[in-house]
Specification:
The chain is α/β, with parallel strands linked by helices and about 150 residues long. Helices cover about 45% and strands about 15% of the residues. The protein is built from 6 helices and 5 strands. It has a 5-stranded parallel sheet with strand order 2-1-3-5-4, with helices on both faces. α2 packs across α3 (about 70-75) and α4 packs parallel to α5 (about 115-125). The longest helix is centred in the N-terminal third of the chain and has 14 residues, at about 40-55. The radius of gyration is 14 Å and the shape is globular. The N and C termini lie far apart (about 30 Å). The chain binds D-ribose. D-ribose binds near residues 67 and 72.
Length: about 150
């Protein structure tokens, strides 16, 4: 699958680890920055990632955004119409973000998430099917916003 990643400085190390892990699992990764631990604002990076996902740019289907907590990038990504970005901090959140929220992006906190946990969350999220059904209407309501 083609996946876009982006981070600020607080999520940079985790983004790099995620990128390597995704590539090792055969995914194609588009890195939208940042490219170092120098301090940057997280919103433009998260928005660029969400816009790439929503537009399906170059076949991108999902996005992963990282900052210190995952919170700032998730708020920013969700400002993009059509983005459904969930902060994931445990396996069950990864599963439910896919099954119930049809999340097309997830947000991870680089200061609180070990790379091996992040890669497990990502795997769960990517492999869990969208349940649809009663969640279809709810997600349609989200997509109609903005
Ligand atoms: C940057 O210091 C930090 O505020 C940012 O990475 C993020 O955690 C914001 O939500």
């Amino acid at each position: 699958m083609k996946i876009a990643v982006a981070s600020d400085h607080g999520g940079f190390q985790l983004k790099e680890a995620v990128k390597a892990g995704l590539a090792a699992r055969g995914h194609e990764v588009l890195d939208l920055g940042t490219d170092s631990e120098a301090s940057v604002d997280y919103a433009p990076f998260a928005v660029a990632c969400a816009e790439a996902v929503v537009a399906g740019r170059d076949g991108i289907l999902r996005g992963i955004v990282c900052c210190g907590t995952g919170i700032g990038v998730s708020i920013a990504a969700n400002k993009v119409k059509g983005a459904r970005c969930a902060v994931v901090t445990r396996d069950e959140y990864a599963r439910l973000a896919a099954a119930h929220n049809h999340a097309n992006l997830i947000a991870l906190g680089g200061r609180f998430t070990a790379p091996e946990d992040a890669l497990r969350y990502i795997e769960i999220w990517l492999e869990t099917p969208w349940e649809g059904g009663r969640h279809d209407r709810r997600v349609a309501e989200l997509d109609a916003m903005l």
